[in-house]
Input
Amino acid sequence: MSSPPSTPTESRALERLRQTFGHPAFRGQQADIVRHVADGGDALVLMPTGGGKSLCYQLPALLRPGLAIVVSPLIALMQDQVAALQQLGVRAGALHSGLTAREAAQTRRDALSGGLELLYVAPERLLAEGFIDMIASARLALFAIDEAHCVSQWGHDFRPEYLQLSVLAERFPEVPRIALTATADPQTRAEIIERLQLREARVFVSSFDRPNIRYTIEDRGDGRTQLLDFIRGSHDGESGIVYCLSRRKVEETAEWLAERGLTALPYHAGLDAATRSRHQRIFQEQDGVIIVATIAFGMGIDKPDVRFVAHLDLPKSVEGYYQETGRAGRDGEPADAWMVYGMADVVQQRRLIDESEADEGWKRIAAAKLNALLGIAESASCRRVPLLAYFGESSLPCGRCDNCLTPPLTWDATEAARMALSAVYRTRQRFGVVHLIDVLRGRTGERMIRWQHDKLSVFGIGAAHDEPTWRAVFRQLVALGLVEVDHAAHGALKLTEAARPVLRGEQILRLRRPREPVRATPRRRVAKSGAPSGSAPDRSRAQPPMDSGQSALLARLKAWRLEQSRAQRVPPYIVLNDATLEALTLARPDSLAALSQIHGIGERRLETYGAALLAVLADFSASHR
Ligand code: ADP
Ligand code: ZN
Output
């Protein structure tokens, strides 16, 4: 933070942050949280994905004497965290079902003999016979309960074992506990406090804004081609996730992208477990892999350098959209949340709700959640404002989403809407959108003549507007609920009560004009302004695009990182993250002292990689003179 640290804990924390983690400053509320927990307080931390939660318990764990126990529900995440800490020279280990009995015994011995600073455990291990008694004999620094929303029986990540974690409060009342989650809603928050017995805890709520994510929602044309243009234009050779609604579409899209030379792998619940975990591993460990997936692909994906999340189908709620897009850019570097959206999405999602077996109450809630997302998709102003408002935060237009960058045109569509609604009515509410547009535009043909629709008063009255305009009008009428789609009658449009005031001319309608797909800009051109706290300079500075020499150096550094990652059998980002490689490329340090100033290079990395990195940089300079 910008003001000088005032307590002894704060200055120790800042020193350790720089030395061990190589970060120059705390982000957002990290400083307050670290001080509070390091001084022995309990805490509940709500921070968005990528906000920097891990540091909130890792640093206090290092500042307090004894062993810190971290409860974490997913083996892959645990292994990642342990590998990352070991890179920093921190003594960390994990206990989970993926270990052999011998490995587990060794880790337990290390933990008890003071050989470990942090021990990650799966909840079922923690609750297993004897574990609590065992750790009771050790000096304990703190308990961290990660993914704390897993206590919520209403959430989709529910873990029954989490309900029993209140045992920690009972057995170890003097050991500080910190619970962390990226789930924002107040209901879950209350459940965490209740079930983990965190009543005395301080609650730290961060902004849920993800300033480095650029939101874009394009009108759907040929979705796949739009996707390909988007990837080639903005994310060539980078990692991303493409979400589709159905397994079949996942398969087809992955194949189609692969045929066009991209590394794209499918992931859905219909694939066997071995294939799924292979694809996930390749995605996690290699650069530039695209996973095409249903929402079965999600929790447990901790890859920090996912540069884009694309939706080829509309999710079913704002929560879903935010959670899925939130998997982009955890490292704080610019990332895209990109979606194509059209009338078929509205129809399909409404249909899923209508045809579900659930009761009326559930259907009403589901419909309201969908409508909130439609509001964002149809919005003509900033996307981020309604997104954050949904989570209870008020904000100003972001200046970085598609609507802020290229404001869509709106027009007084009252007259056009009346024509469209009349066409629905005059054709007896028995036809779908394609035919209705033909009627409005006065296109004759066999169907027109058979139904004598060319004799109707509405025939040809909308010839002044082109077809994309009419499609946009109908889509918005459906999204706004003036018209509904009858699934039982092959997608025929029907008027609802809400159409009356418009038909009678009592209500003015302003609608969005369809627009050309926003032309892709390379991601480095996206200004990285407005980090949540503005405290960490690496996230808040706009960066100019790289020149070809810099790109070549970056490629060289990535190749070097890949060798390291293969030799050590850890993912590349565990060796050094993208932000650090980019900082190296721009700064080109030529001494160990200069190298130590680069974000992400702490003492241990300087020792391990310093000489090798300087050699790569010197070699590059020599060959590019
Ligand atoms: P979360 O668990 O909240 O999703 P992480 O703890 O994985 O987020 O942190 C996300 C990224 O931010 C990591 O790459 C981490 O190294 C980086 N990070 C965390 N704190 C800081 C900081 N103070 N300065 C710079 N980078 C940070
Ligand atoms: Zn905006």
